[in-house]
Design brief:
The complex is a heterodimer of chains A (about 250) and B (about 325). With about 250 residues, chain A is of the alpha/beta class. In chain A, the strands form two sheets. In chain A, strands 6-7-8-3-9-10 form a six-stranded mixed beta sheet, sandwiched between helices. Chain A has a four-stranded antiparallel beta sheet with strand order 2-1-4-5, with helices on one face. In chain A, a hairpin with a 2-residue loop joins strand 9 and strand 10. In chain A, helix 3 packs across helix 4 and helix 3 runs parallel beside helix 5. The longest helix of chain A has 12 residues. The termini of chain A are far apart. The model of chain A has no long low-confidence stretch (mean pLDDT about 90). With about 325 residues, chain B is an all-alpha fold. In chain B, a hairpin with a 2-residue loop joins strand 2 and strand 3. Chain B starts with a helix and ends with a helix. The mean pLDDT of chain B is about 90. The radius of gyration of chain B is 20 Å and the shape is globular. Chain B has one domain. Classes of the chains: A alpha/beta (about 250), B mainly alpha (about 325). At the A-B interface, helix 2 and helix 3 of A face helix 8, helix 9 and helix 10 of B. The complex binds adenosine-5'-diphosphate and magnesium ion. Adenosine-5'-diphosphate (ADP) binds next to strand 2 and helix 1 of chain A. The site of adenosine-5'-diphosphate has 11 residues of chain A, from strand 2 and helix 1.
Chain lengths: ~250, ~325
């Protein structure tokens, strides 16, 4: 049997910001349908790694492939259209628009008629898709609420909904539960766990209690490098991980 | 909430339609006509120009100081091409062609200003649009062949047919009101279209808009084109109102006046432009009687300060505050 192509395949990926090497020589293969957690302390380079994959800050060296196709140099929205969806660590929503409009803008951006002076009609499929996404995120009761009036948890749910607008094959979530009160967390985590297995999921999360149960494989980063890659049950007592998380000297 | 605003706006337009008739019932004939033409009519015309600024600021977050200049482009093109203007520069066209030509020119100028300033924001956008406005102003003021320099072009009397003469204050008022209403409801329609939603997305989060696959530059330039068309409509009406156009119409003073109208009315909603222009026009007209002609700038400056200090979001912000107070009082 032929080997299946990884959904996301990074080879020797590095990213510099001036003198700072934020990501250093990362090799990573995430298989289709896999749940991958990326762990690591603040400043380890997790978000920067996402940015190289999504194209916001392409790598300064190395290559990135999506299901075998090279995407290293593509602009972010080209990658979105090829099937990468992402959320941002700090919400990047449109505060002055309603929840439905936020989702609609995310859906329309993928369609050829994205530049239009005509309001969507009753049967507009983009609008239907936006409603369906709101439904999936259990936000249907808030369609006309302005986003600036949503709770933090609702904003995080909306972020995931917008990332799903392009029916992505790979979904990347950057600390989706960050800043959520303990009471708000289960709702969001259940949503994430309920995502279909046809979707490949890469999740940044620095709370191990959340990351480990959700993951098939865990990647731990420190100072821009991947230091551990292992199944979740071997993470908690890995000596390197312990030294990072308990602040011990390694 | 939103449809309620549209309903109120519609009621407002109906009230404005009937207003000249009402004024005639309560005021002496001369006074009623003065209010209709010189205050309400003028306020509507300047309100249209101010709305082009408010549209860009409210929905795009762009403060453009080029809008008065763009209005002037429509006025000058009309004056250059229309028959009967003095001096005759090109002439040969009736109003039915010269007016659309002016609007096309204003829209093109809007697109050009949008394209030139497409990478700038905030104070830099303000400066670049001001520089463009002043550049055109200086050019027009010193060019005799096309713009008749300092004197400008006179005798742009406006179209007249039997039973329809825009020199009749009532007719002019209703033409201006109809134009303003069409543009106003057009803006309200547009801001909920994909174009308008993306424009607001650019205001809230340009990076995300680009990441979603939209061209930020295309939407920005188009927004300036739309605003250019709106300003052009105002410029056409003001040229007919003034029976001509001269460089002073697009000078620094006029440019700043449009900004003042927009700000005192409030940049939260297009209706602010009309409220601001009405307040401005009333003070402009009665400054002489209230205080002293030469002190108009002091007076409008004080009004500006008071409104902005009391309510940073202008007169419509004061309205919203009052409504909230009343609602809280009732509870
Ligand atoms: N756009 C940027 N410009 C300059 N430095 C950056 C930028 N983004 C991230 N960095 C730096 O790269 C390093 C890794 O940051 P980041 O990827 O955000 O870490 P993490 O998400 O793991 O907390 C940090 O030192 C950060 O300051
Ligand atoms: Mg991060």
């Amino acid at each position: 049997m032929a080997m299946t192509e990884p959904a996301i395949h990074l080879r020797g990926v590095s990213r510099r910001f001036g003198a700072l090497q934020a990501v250093r020589d990362v090799n990573l293969a995430v298989m289709p349908g896999e749940r991958r957690a990326v762990l690591g302390p603040n400043g380890a380079g997790k978000t920067t790694l996402f940015n190289t994959i999504c194209g916001d800050f392409p790598p300064t060296s190395g290559t990135i492939a999506l299901f075998g196709a090279d995407i290293t140099r593509l602009r972010p929205h080209r990658r979105t259209r090829l099937g990468i969806g992402r959320t941002y660590q700090t919400s990047l929503l449109f505060n002055g628009l309603t929840l439905l409009e936020n989702l609609f803008v995310a859906v329309r951006g993928l369609r050829p008629n994205r530049f239009s002076f005509l309001r969507p009609g009753r049967g507009d499929d983009g609008m239907a898709k936006a409603r369906e996404l709101a439904d999936r995120m259990r936000l249907s009761h808030l369609l006309d609420a302005e986003v600036m009036n949503l709770s933090h948890g609702q904003r995080r749910q909306l972020e995931v909904g917008m990332a799903l607008a392009g029916d992505p094959r790979v979904l990347m979530l950057d600390e989706p539960a960050a800043g959520l009160s303990p009471g708000d967390r289960p709702e969001l985590l259940n949503l994430i766990r309920g995502l279909p297995r046809t979707l490949t999921l890469i999740l940044i999360e620095h709370d191990m209690d959340i990351a480990l149960p959700a993951a098939d494989v865990v990647t731990v980063m420190k100072d821009g490098e991947v230091v551990v890659e292992a199944p979740p049950n071997r993470i908690a007592d890995d000596p390197v991980v312990q030294s990072i998380y308990l602040g011990g000297v390694h | 909430m939103r449809s309620a605003a549209a309903t109120w706006s519609l009621l407002g337009v109906l009230a404005l339609l009937a207003l000249p008739w009402l004024l005639a019932q309560v005021l002496p004939a001369g006074q009623a006509q003065f209010w209709t033409a010189n205050i309400l009519g003028r306020a509507i015309v300047f309100g249209i120009i101010a709305m082009s600024l408010t549209f860009l600021a409210t929905y795009g977050g762009f403060v453009s100081l080029a809008q008065m200049m763009i209005a002037g482009v429509a006025g000058y093109v009309l004056a250059i091409f229309v028959d009967g203007a003095v001096p005759r520069i090109v002439g040969g066209l009736g109003y039915s062609l010269a007016v659309p030509l002016g609007l096309v020119a204003a829209t093109a100028m809007g697109l050009l200003v949008g394209a030139i300033s497409v990478r700038t924001r905030d104070i830099y956008l303000l400066m670049i649009t001001l520089a463009l406005a002043m550049g055109v102003f200086r050019f027009v003021e010193t060019n005799i062949a096309w713009f008749n320099g300092y004197e400008g072009i006179r005798n742009v009397v406006g179209p007249a047919m039997p039973g329809f003469d825009v020199r009749d204050p009532m007719v002019f008022y209703h033409v201006a009101l109809g134009t303003a209403a069409l543009l106003y409801f057009g803006v309200l329609y547009l801001v909920r279209s994909p174009f308008g939603l993306v424009l607001q997305g650019i205001r809230d989060n340009p990076r995300r808009v680009a990441a979603l696959g939209y061209s930020v530059a295309l939407h920005r330039i188009a927004a300036f084109g739309v605003a250019g068309f709106i300003a052009g409509c105002g410029g056409t009406l003001s040229t007919i109102y003034n029976i001509g156009i001269s460089p002073g119409t697009i000078g620094l003073g006029a440019t700043v006046n449009v900004l003042i109208m927009s700000v005192i009315g409030g940049l939260g909603h297009p209706v602010g432009a009309f409220i601001g222009s009405l307040i401005f026009t009333v003070f402009d007209t009665f400054a002489a009687t209230i205080y002293d002609r030469d002190r108009f700038n002091t007076l409008i400056g004080l009004v500006f300060l008071v409104i902005v200090l009391v309510s940073p979001d202008g007169a419509i912000g004061i309205g919203a505050r009052l409504r909230r107070l009343l609602a809280a009082g009732r509870r």
